[in-house]
Amino acid sequence: MKKYYGYFLAFVFCMPLLAQKSGNKKDNGYTISEPDKQYGIFHAVKSDSNHKEFPVLVFLPDNYHDSRKEYPVVYMLHGVNRQPLTEEGIRSMNNPSTKIKEAATFYQVIIVCPLVGNTFYMNAPKKPEQKIASFVGIELPAFIDKNYRTIKSREGRFLAGFSMGGYGAVSLLCRFPDTFSGAISRAGVLDLATGIHDLDWDNAPHTIDILGSYWDNQELYHLNSCPNLINRIRDRKDVFIILEVGTEDFLYKCNVRLHQKLNETGIPHIFAEYPGGHEWTKNCLFSMLSHLQFFAPTVYKN
């Protein structure tokens, strides 16, 4: 208890300094240090559907202010584990393997990182006040299109994410195919019951607050898992899905199952497997975005 009390005191005393350093007078409870162009431009984006603001970091290509062109946007969704591409990792921007700013410049895209906590990017059936899908799928693109020079059509909007963010990318594409044209998932939690089906877990700990216990709500888990959600886009040929996963990843099986389902439905996609487990390395972000060349001419036309 003494250790945690010490962490609490450190947090209490450091937060005013962080708020002063960032230039934010209002304490939103987020420890983003120096949200400037080097680490990402900070916005507190209002969500009417959630009755609150969400912190969002925007990364622009180096030449954004020297040109007048409109840029594609990649909505990069964080995970819940302790890898760099998590809410905590994106907030701190201290880990050199993140390289979000460099990727924005290299691929000439705007990268938008909403920080939404352990929500699985869905409108939670068990928490009706939590409508994260509505925020990321509707409200956030409207905000970004209003405030930045973007390609204001679905052909210029893509979703990408790691782990929980991979689920968010694929599921939001299925829910909003008229807003986004493609989804890129790295080691995505594509089956919300994969812990029970593949790992012999007693329950699904990360989604109990959102969907309830698996054993009492199996239909909800099925309806909100990606193998079912892709039925919403099975007749569309103007969408694409990229799946990347490590062969030793504990989520490998559920990624393979979705790949097989995508083959059956004929939805355009790429499945790529690599050595390794559930990890985020310095090359993952560049690997994910490199697939855009096969499906997204808006990224390369300028």
Task: Walk me through the structure.
The chain is α/β, with parallel strands linked by helices. It has a single domain, classed as Rossmann fold (3-Layer(aba) Sandwich). 37% of the residues lie in helices and 16% in strands. The protein contains 13 helices and eight strands. Strands 1-2-4-3-5-6-7-8 form an eight-stranded mixed sheet, with helices on both faces. The protein is globular.
Please count the beta strands (DSSP E, at least 2 residues each). 8
Mean pLDDT: 84
| The CATH fourth-level homologous superfamily | Alpha/Beta hydrolase fold, catalytic domain
Structural category is alpha/beta
* CATH architectural grouping: 3-Layer(aba) Sandwich
Radius of gyration: 19 Å
Strand order of the largest sheet: 1-2-4-3-5-6-7-8
Helix tally equals 13
Helix content: 25-40%
User: Low-confidence parts lasting 5 or more residues at pLDDT below 50?
Assistant: 1-37
CATH class: Alpha Beta
Q: How many distinct folded domains?
A: 1
CATH topology type: Rossmann fold
Distance between the termini: 57 Å
Query: Into which percentage range does the β-strand content fall?
Result: 15-25%
User: What letter string, H or E per element, gives the SSE order?
Assistant: HEEEHHEHEHEHHHHEHEHHH
Assign an overall shape: globular
Q: Report the major sheet.
A: 8 strands, mixed
Question: SSE layout and pairings?
Answer:
Blueprint lengths: L1 H21 L18 E7 L4 E8 L13 E5 L9 H6 L7 H8 L2 E5 L17 H16 L9 E6 L1 H12 L6 E5 L7 H6 L8 H4 L6 H7 L1 H4 L10 E7 L5 H14 L3 E6 L9 H7 L1 H4 L1 H4 L2
Parallel strand pairs: 3-4, 3-5, 5-6, 6-7, 7-8
Antiparallel strand pairs: 1-2, 2-4
